[in-house]
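ok trying again, last paste got cut off:
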Amino acid sequence: MKVKVGVIFGGKSVEHEVSIISAIQAMNKMNGEKYEIIPIYITKDGKWYTGEVLRDIEIYQDMQLLKKYAKQVHLLEKDGRYILQGTGAFKKEVGEVDIVFPITHGTNVEDGVLQGYLQTVGVPYVGSNVYASVVGQDKVYMKAIFKEEKLPITKYVWFYDTDYKNEQEEVLKKVATLKYPLIVKPATTGSSIGIGTCKDEKELIEKIEDAMAYDSKIVVEEMVQHLKEVNVSVLGNYESQETSVIEEVFPKSNILTYEDKYIGSSKVKGKLGVKFSGKGSKGMASLDRKIPADLSEKLAKEVKDYAIKAFKALGNSGVARVDLLVDDKEKKVYLNEINSIPGSLAFYLWNPAGKEYTDLLDEMITIGIRDYKRRESKTHSFKTNILEGFAQNGGLKGLKETKGKM
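nice, full thing came through this time. structure:
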């Protein structure tokens, strides 16, 4: 009997289209003899749909057509089963899943919100849990953990948008403790959305205002000089980890942009610049890169060691991509960030290491099942009910008296 894998993607995120690309890539590579693949698409307004038509990337050009041929559903638990229930008058059961595989990016879906819902429903799922997802999405939390673990990071400050609006001079003084050039980031976006660089205060103000359009929390950090950007993927959980090959990426500007990652390589551009064809965009896999990265044996070992330490410190599971910065002159490595659900699931970093994408997905699902069994083996509630005898002890009477005074 095949394992029913519900692949969730989309969502209320600025990385919505990136998620569609990643998910369709993955569904096309899952072992169809072992798994029954069930697409579950979340629209930008939060509606859930399922249907085989969702595996065709062209359907996303016409949302009315998509809604006509896909079925709107809710995911819920029923008699120990995890079902997709229709939203019509008769609440018809549309499908069933054994495990959920979130291939989502960005806020509301990668940041612990979706994982929290899945855990509340009780369904097994692939990837990092709620806690790791939260800190993996928020650069402020992430940096605080890295700092506590004495992992190398660049100097930075952070502030809320209200701090900047109400006390701009104070915030700019805070930023002035850093050395230009600087990089400004929304704390919780991914895919380089809302990120900008600046070489003076005039540009700084402009980039802060740009970043505030995407987030209420802003990070400003020093840029690494003589920069070489490298990424490595980690597979596993807190018990065991392995690393992929290391890649060096080549941005067209001084930082990797959303356009570099997902738009610039497309031959035919739609509304977002993504090529909508039967094969679809290659996403992160199409970025200009060198694999393996041109690093000394010593630096390569440091990169992999720091990546594993960061992965464990945040409690990640499944596949993550760790982005690092190397000062090529000083030969010093800095952690940049972790992507707990990386674009294209970083499969292009595992192929050169001899791990096919189909095998990578299979291992991720296996880890997800193990994580679920371990989670269920722990005590999360008590069989005893402390409210038994509450009435006899005068509890209900006291409650009624309190209610009468409200």
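cool. Confidence is low (pLDDT under 50) at residues 260-281. The first helix runs from residue 16 to 29.
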